[in-house]
Amino acid sequence: MTFNNKTVLITGGARGFGKAIAVAFLESGAETIVIDSNENNIEDFRKKYNENNSKVKLITMDITKSKSTVNILNSLCDSYKGIDILINNARSGIRTNPLEESEDNFDTTVAVMLKAPLFMSQYLIKKNYKINKNQSTTIINISSILGQYVSNESASYHLVKSAFEGL
User: Fold this and answer.
1) Quick one: average pLDDT of 70-80?
2) Of 112, 144, 147, 164, whose CB is crowded by the most CB atoms within 10 A?
3) At 136, is the secondary structure helix, strand, or coil?
4) Which of 116, 117, 119, 109 is CA-nearest to residue 159?
5) To which H or E segment does residue 86 belong?
């Protein structure tokens, strides 16, 4: 499969599963935008994949900051003439026993894994429509089996993955 002439944006894309997705799209010819909140992960990605590759753009960003996220998305959409594929993959919060869940961890998990993907998706759909009424936006939400089953993962993770599937 090739993705020439397609632009893909991956949140949480500089390590783990997100990195594997980003690399696969990059190797398939897509203009690949990687957003991650961890500067070290971005730098590691840059060293391996960005040295001589003009098809990858790496951005360190906290996607929960609505105003700066919209500004960056707006700039990216204008530069790339829209985003074809958005992959909501970012994860946040700490893994903890469900009985040890804190309110701060819950709020962070919901903000990164549910609220930001919803509003980023809304924004990109609307912006892409303004740029090109014929352009569709494909949105892929990376979920987990833990959205349907219980484990010793944090309660917020279970709740968000379940809600994410509904989104």
Assistant:
1) 94
2) 112
3) coil
4) 109
5) strand 85-88
Q: What is the pLDDT of residue 136?
A: 80
* Residue 59 near residue 84, CB atoms below 8 Å: no
SS3 for 6-74 is CEEEEECCCCHHHHHHHHHHHHCCCEEEEEECCHHHHHHHHHHHHCCCCCEEEEECCCCCHHHHHHHHH
The rounded distance, in Å, linking the Cα atoms of 32 and 6 is: 9
pTM to 2 decimals? 0.92
Phi, psi (rounded to 5 degrees) for 82: 110, 165
Q: Are 137 and 83 in contact (CB under 8 A)?
A: yes
